[in-house]
Design a protein that fits this description.
Keywords: Carboxypeptidase, Glycosyltransferase, Hydrolase, Membrane, Multifunctional enzyme, Protease, Transferase, Transmembrane, Transmembrane helix. The protein is about 35% helix and about 10% strand. Strand 17 and strand 18 form a beta hairpin.
């Protein structure tokens, strides 16, 4: 005996039998196909039966794509991102007016028929025959739901979307069979709930909750009669009946829905008349989609979170799997972003740098011992207009940053010092440190092939008065170039490379730094995030932790929530506690009495290092307390602006030093971020002072202008070797990519330069006395 469907109607077997008799007829009518001849119908009928049997028995219903919410560490929303703006709600959270309105206008016999409305088919067939065309369709609400499932499954693939909506008899047959299955398995109320959650209401709103928020700024459960009628009317043609762009058409359509609701007995004719006279009273909420809408200047951090999701295998083995999960949405992503730290970062940037300045500033704050990114911001806002950019200056190329990062100048020197201390050199190590010298040669490398200074390349200190001998403490405070070149020559390149590996210090393009002595002067491009996490290892007494941005993720699928695995920070020992404590002591001296005095914190212990590069194209301050590390970069992304006689943030600077512009940015950002937090102390190492006190003023950021250009004898950029090759690339390359430095487009973060393309010669990149011009 055929099984009866609960709630009345035909069983699947009976539905199938009926289907065989009317499927072609119904399909033709509902797909809007005019079949003029009985012979054609007969041929199509035979084919339709075979196709029907071959259709898989179960309709695969993908989870509905929904909006993803990105939260800060305290659970407050940073931004919402979505492929389709949708919030799935239960039928009990949808206004009864809305439920009745959509049924009245789309399928008034919804509760009386099964998957196929035979009366509706015959009525439509008769009307279409009389008109000689397609005047009326007969798709049930269940069939419309099935079609929407096909569209949802197609995602954003235009080919698949076209296939899911193509007006063919074959698609209608497939739709009809699945409608039978859906009616049997779900029942009327669940079908109505699913339909109202999946269908498109225009204005980027998918589902009735998003539509209610978009047009009336209220929840779907609170819709009144006329509001529900308006939304129900939109479904047939979201563009034609868009109330935002064509109020008259929308009102006309709304009133038709109200009239239909009265005709089927959902409301009285008096209620319909009153509602028809009411104005639309829209209260439109504009879509707030994407990281560009993030609060507290967190757009770049938001994009970093997205990049982490799309790149980390923990979210899927392939890029396609990760993208599908991201676009599906329904995620609640709790991040590491500390709202207090983020607000402090943005406040500091706005106080010291204007977005219209010819240079930009970027700041990253991380937590030592955990790798948590606490704050990330920059002076040029996220966007696509003048003085805006989509490039995140805080991160490397693979995460949406510049092609190569930015030259770090003397902020690199602590890495060399750490390597020497790991090799057993004492903190009182002394070198002759002349004002000017040839790069010592040969220098041992990891592969056993010594680096040789074949060109007689030279290195200088900032000022002729800087003449050694110097010990490490004074050399670090004054940032003496020749001292660190001699140190790296003494210990060899391999210990330095090992230290860099432990601190995960790589170039902005992800490549390891070259084994050449000139890296001690910071000529290679590195990102602020990389520098902040590396210095955080010193603060954590030698423990390096990989940076993380995501704390947890939950995904909503239907009415259920599940937790997703997220990347974890990996912590490992980079240098010994003794080495880290010694570096901390050395860098405390930099902010106490050296080049970084303007960055020093007054209420707690701090340490850090300044850096200024070739012709003052980049200025840095990287510093930390025991519980927070931060890196600040100031410069031009195009590397074309020389920060001499320049106005930044409304203040004129004859020369920009790492301690003068980045230093105060760091100080103010850290002060606010650390407010009302504990103030732990460093483990200080006793380092005797030099035997003789030269009485020099260490306040200037010395040794970082000509020295940091890897010999500085180039003709413009100076990042060439001793023969002067490799210059002039900043103007050439920067001009080609950016078209200028004030408000022009930034370089594309995915654009890369072949090795040596803008180099003076091979020695610029391989002998290590220059960068040869590989700058974005």
């Amino acid at each position: 005996m055929a099984k009866k469907r609960s709630g009345g109607g035909l069983s699947p077997t009976q539905q199938a039998a009926k289907f065989l008799g009317v499927s072609v007829l119904a399909g033709a009518v509902m797909a809007g196909i005019a079949l003029p001849a009985v012979g054609v119908l007969g041929l199509a009928a035979k084919g339709s039966v075979e196709g029907f049997d071959e259709i898989p028995a179960n309709l695969k219903t993908p989870p509905l794509s929904q909006r993803t919410t990105i939260l800060d560490a305290q659970g407050d929303s940073i931004a919402t991102v979505y492929s389709r703006d949708r919030t799935v709600v239960d039928l009990t959270d949808i206004s009864p007016y809305m439920q009745k309105a959509i049924v009245a206008i789309e399928d008034a016999r919804f509760y009386q028929h099964g998957a196929i409305d035979l009366k509706g088919v015959l009525r439509a067939l008769n009307k279409n025959a009389q008109s000689g065309g397609v005047a009326e369709g007969a798709s049930t609400l269940t069939q419309q739901y099935v079609k929407n499932v096909f569209v949802e499954e197609a995602g954003d693939d235009p080919t698949k979307v076209a296939q899911a909506t193509q007006q063919t008899l074959g698609r209608k047959i497939k739709e009809l069979k699945y409608a039978i299955q859906v009616e049997e398995e779900l029942g009327k109320k669940k079908i109505l709930e699913n339909y109202l959650n999946i269908t498109f209401f225009g204005q980027q709103a998918y589902g009735v909750e998003a539509a209610s928020q978009r047009y009336f700024s209220k929840h779907a459960k609170d819709l009144n009669l006329q509001e529900a009628a308006l939304l129900a009317g939109i479904v047939q043609s979201p563009s034609r009946y868009d109330p935002v762009n064509d109020e008259a058409e929308a009102v006309k359509r709304r009133n038709i829905v109200l009239q239909r609701m009265a005709e089927v007995g959902d409301i009285s004719r008096a209620e319909a008349a009153r509602a028809q006279k009411s104005p639309l009273e829209l209260k439109v909420s504009h879509p707030k989609n994407g990281c560009i809408t993030a609060v507290k200047g967190a757009s770049f951090f938001c994009k970093y979170v997205e990049k982490v999701f799309l790149n980390d295998p923990v979210f899927g083995e392939t890029k396609e799997e990760r993208a599908k999960l991201w676009n599906q949405g329904g995620l609640t992503i709790r991040t590491t972003l500390d709202p207090q730290a983020q607000e402090s970062v943005q406040d500091s940037l706005s106080q010291h740098v204007n977005k219209s300045d010819s240079v930009a500033a970027a700041v990253t704050l991380v937590e030592p011992g955990t790798g948590k990114i606490l704050g990330m911001g920059q002076s040029k806002p996220f966007g696509y207009g003048d003085n805006e950019t989509e490039i995140n200056y805080n991160v490397g190329n693979g995460m949406g940053g510049s092609n190569f990062g930015f030259p770090t100048g003397s902020t690199f020197k602590p890495f060399v010092a750490a390597a020497a201390l790991e090799q057993g050199r004492p903190p009182t190590q002394e070198y002759s440190s002349p004002y000017d010298m040839e790069y010592p040669s040969p220098v041992q490398t990891c592969d056993g092939k010594p680096w040789v200074n074949t060109d007689g390349s030279r290195v200088e200190n900032e000022d002729e008065s800087e003449v050694g001998p110097y010990r490490l403490k004074e050399a670090m405070a004054k940032s003496v170039n020749t001292y660190f070149v001699q140190m790296i020559s003494d210990i060899g390149m391999c210990p330095v490379m090992k230290t860099l590996d432990g601190l995960n210090v790589v170039q902005g393009n992800g490549e390891k730094l070259p084994e050449v002595p000139a890296i001690s002067l910071g000529s290679k491009g590195i990102s602020p995030l990389t520098m902040a996490t590396a210095y955080a290892a010193f603060a954590a007494r030698g423990m390096y932790c990989t940076p993380i941005a995501i704390e947890s993720i939950t995904q909503k699928i239907g009415d259920k929530q599940k937790s997703l695995e997220v990347p974890k920070s990996t912590c490992s020992r980079a240098v010994s506690e003794k080495t880290a404590d010694t570096v901390n002591t050395l860098l405390r001296g930099v902010v106490d009495s050296g080049t970084g005095q303007q960055a020093g914190l007054t209420s707690r212990e701090s340490a850090g290092k300044t850096g200024t590069t070739d012709e003052r194209r980049n200025a840095w301050f990287v510093g930390y307390t025991p519980n927070m590390s931060g890196a600040v970069w100031v410069g031009s992304a195009s590397q074309q602006v020389k920060m001499v006689d320049i106005t930044i943030g409304g203040r004129w600077h004859p020369k920009v030093y790492g301690g003068e512009v980045p230093g105060p940015i760091w100080r103010d950002a850290m002060t606010g971020a650390l407010s009302n937090r504990e103030a732990p102390s460093f483990n200080i190492v006793d380092i005797p002072d030099a035997e003789r006190d030269r009485g020099e003023d260490p306040d200037e950021d010395r040794g970082e202008d000509r020295g940091d250009n890897d010999n500085g004898n180039g003709d413009d950029r100076g990042n060439g070797n001793g023969n002067g090759n490799g210059g002039n690339d900043g103007g050439l390359f920067g001009g080609l990519v950016t078209g200028g430095t004030t408000g022009g487009p930034e370089p594309d973060p995915t654009f890369s330069v072949p090795e040596g393309l803008f180099q003076g010669n091979d020695n610029a990149g391989n002998n290590g006395n220059g960068n040869g011009g590989n700058w974005p």
